[in-house]
Each structure stands twice: as C-alpha cells, then as structure tokens.
Design brief:
This is C4-type zinc ribbon domain-containing protein. Pfam families: CT398_CC, Zn_ribbon_9. It comes from Streptantibioticus parmotrematis. It is built from 5 helices and 4 strands; from the N terminus they run ααααββαββ. The protein is mostly helical and 247 residues long. The protein has a 4-stranded mixed β-sheet with strand order 2-1-4-3. A hairpin with a 2-residue loop joins strand 1 and strand 2. Helix 1 runs antiparallel to helix 3 and helix 2 packs antiparallel against helix 3. The longest helix has 83 residues. It is rod-shaped.
Amino acid sequence: MNAAPADQIRLLDLQALDVRLGQLEHKRTHLPEHAEVERLSADAGQLRDLLVAAQTQESDTAREQTKAEQDVDQVRQRATRDQKRLDSGVVTSPKDLENLQREIASLAKRQGDLEDVVLEVMERREAAQERVAELTQRLESVQAKVAEAEARRAEVLKQIDEEGFTAGKEREIVAASVPADLIALYDKLRAQLGGVGAAKLYQKRCEGCRLELNITELNEVRAAAPDEIVRCENCRRILVRTPDSGL
C-alpha cells in the first residue's frame, strides 16, 4: 500500500486523538466518584435495613407497652371495685371480708408487678426510639454525601463528554483527510494491537513497541519509497517516518 507522506503523518494525529478518546473512556469508567457513590450507597442501604429493624422494634415495644398498660388498668379497675365493696359495708361476713382484703392485697401486688413491666417496656421503647433517631440522622447524612458525590460525578462526566465530543469532531476531520484504504488498515491494526495502529519511528525506535530497529530493518526502511507504507517488523504497526526518525 502506498500513501503520500503527509497522509502518513496525519495518521499520527489520528492516533493521538484515538489515544485521547481511549483515555477519556477509561477515565469515564474508572472515576473515583463511581466507587465513592457505590460505597456510600451500600452504607445507606445497610443503614436503611438497620433503621427498618429499629422501627419494627419500636413499633413492637409500643404495642407491648399498650398491652402492659391495659393489664395494669384492668387490675386497677378491679382493685377499685373491690375497695368500694369493702368500704360500702355490703360485705359483712368475716370470712368474706378476709377474702376481699386478701384479694385487694393480691391485686395491689399484681398491679405493682405489672407497673414494673410497663416501666421496663417503656425503657426498651425509649431505647428503640433513640436508636431510630440516631439511624435516621446517620442515614440522612450518608444520603446527603451520596447526593454530593453524584453531583461531583455528573460534573466530571459532563467535562469528559465535552472533551470527548471535541476530540471526536477533530478525529472526523482528520480521518476525512486520510485515504480510505489507509484508514481501513489503520483501524484494523488498532483493533488488533491494543488501540495503537500507527507509531512514529523516532531515533531508530518504534514508539509502538518501544524496540529499536536493527540495521537490516533500518536499511529496508531507508530503501523504501517515501509513499510506501512501512510496517514495524516487531509489532506490525504502521511505521510513520519523520525528520527525526534517525534514518
């Protein structure tokens, strides 16, 4: 294949733009903000799970407290009725009076025990409420950090997209000025060789594989016509000759 030396030189411009576009794409997919958002989102997910568990516990203890308070109220009402009976003088039998007094005493003990239960449940409920408040605050803080990280990421991605758009437009212009068959070869090699299809021959060294050409290879390059497409014997990339190639 033959191509004008100027067209071969433009391959280097095209290669530089393709390298830049590749770097931008790599940067886009490896932004530290990606990992930060992922980490913070995972933290937020864990906190949400903990918050749901704490809210469930608070709800359970609230029902438990209501039940315990109802039990206390029932015992209190019964003790009040018994006390009224005792105070009314309706019960006159010594045995019945003794039984009634014994029941009032038993109810008083029962009420005290139930009130202790209510206090214990209230303490657990207050602890659950404090846990809910703490987790809510922590979750809100992490969610704010997620939003901040997402905003930073969006801004960086916007800048990358803008730079990529500009580089892409420049590539279109350069590619349009290079013969189609040369572009086709370049693109084929670029796909096969890690994104680099053309390399500069600089001071007898291929900048694609970074290996210096031996004397035989240099003589072959020297003997090639200026419009002949030369390939590196080591990496098979298009080797572009320039005034500083060392020939």
